[in-house]
Amino acid sequence: MNIVVLTGAGISAESGLATFRDLGGIWSQVNLEEVATPEAFAADPERVQSFYNARRAQLHEVEPNAAHHALVRLEREWRKGSFLLVTQNVDDLHDRAGSQALLHMHGELRRVRCLACGTDDRWEGPVTSESACPSCRTQGRLRPHVVWFGETPLHMEQIEAALEGCDLFIAIGTSAQVWPAAGFVRMLPRRAWGIEINPERSAMASSFAEGRRGPATRELPLLVEELLA
Ligand code: APR
Predict the structure, then answer these.
(1) What residues does ligand 1 touch, defined as CB less than 6 Å away?
(2) In this predicted structure, what is the pLDDT of residue 161?
(3) 161 Cβ partners below 8 Å, 6+ apart?
(4) Distances from the Cα of 199 to the Cαs of 71, 94, 190, in angstroms?
(5) Sign of dihedral through CA atoms 163, 167, 172, 174?
(6) Which residue's C-alpha comes closest to atom 13 of ligand 1?
(7) Per-residue DSSP letters for 150-189?
(8) How far apart are CA 208 and CA 139, in angstroms?
């Protein structure tokens, strides 16, 4: 039985990172048009850099939670097929928890991309107009390695191949309002079983066979226990 897991901001909520669309979420504090589009970056790169610099700095204040660790346990102990974790999150909590079969389809706060040479590299700390590319040394040509609205998510071929062979799809902590991730549940083979873990019904809840209505730190360890029993 091949498992594909999709996570969204909700899995990091209990670690203290704000989600985007819950009450008081990031997009109620900041206009996404001003910080999360290529046009915004072209118009005011400093504003965009400072938005991501602040979110990158916040990573030092948070830790992976029981839900992140439950996914690492499932990945390590699952013997009945393949396992792939696809995250929409740009935080590093899955990485720090120890997930290996992990694809960041919206990029990562802890990486920068050079507009001069095209490489992406690990990056701690703030990015400024003086920051030099670790690969080509060009200064002032770095952008967050984050997929903005209107841009193409990363690793889509690998994700689509995994969905074609998927028997169990588990979506955790995503409102299913941003495509293509929202449509993954509709790309599954007919035999696949879908489970959604979310205190609320997501926009795609009706496409899932099961909805486990509760916080990820409670529902996910229980589900992993069941799967590994
Ligand atoms: N456990 C599980 N789910 C939770 C929890 C929790 N403790 N708390 C909140 N949630 C759920 C909310 O009910 C909501 O459905 O997490 C979801 C968060 O939804 P969004 O804030 O829309 O986040 P997400 O779905 O990841 O957004 C997708 O939108 O802004 C872009 O690129 C950004 O990756 C992001 C994408």
Answers:
(1) 8-10, 13-14, 19-22, 25, 88, 106, 173-175, 177-178, 197-200, 202, 215-216
(2) 98
(3) none
(4) 18, 20, 26
(5) positive
(6) 200
(7) TSPPSSHHHHHHHHHT-SEEEEES--S-STTGGGGGGGS-
(8) 47
CA–CA gap between residue 220 and residue 227 (Å, rounded)? 10
In DSSP terms, 161 is beta-bridged to none
Residue in the structure block whose two tokens are 């979110």: 55
Containing 112, the helix (H) or strand (E) segment is strand 107-114
Strand, coil or helix: what is 203? coil
Whether residue 91 contacts residue 19, with contact meaning beta carbons closer than 8 Å, is answered with: no
Q: Is the peptide bond before 153 cis (omega within 30 degrees of 0)?
A: no
This model's pTM is above 0.90: yes
Catalytic residue positions? Answer: 106
For residues 10 and 19, the answer to whether their CB atoms sit within 8 Å is yes
Specify whether the CB–CB gap between 212 and 196 falls below 8 A. Answer: yes
Q: Tokens 């992993």 sit at which residue?
A: 224
pLDDT tens-place string over residues 134-143: 999 999 999 9
Determine which helix (DSSP H) or strand (DSSP E) holds 95, and give its type and residue range: helix 93-97
Q: Give the DSSP per-residue string, 205-217.
A: GGGSSEEE-S-HH
Task: Report the nearest atom of ligand 1 relative to the CA of 19.
Answer: 21
Q: Judge contact between 138 and 123, C-beta under 8 A.
A: no
Instruction: Give 10-52 pLDDT, tens digit per residue.
Output: 999 999 999 999 999 999 999 999 999 999 999 999 999 999 9
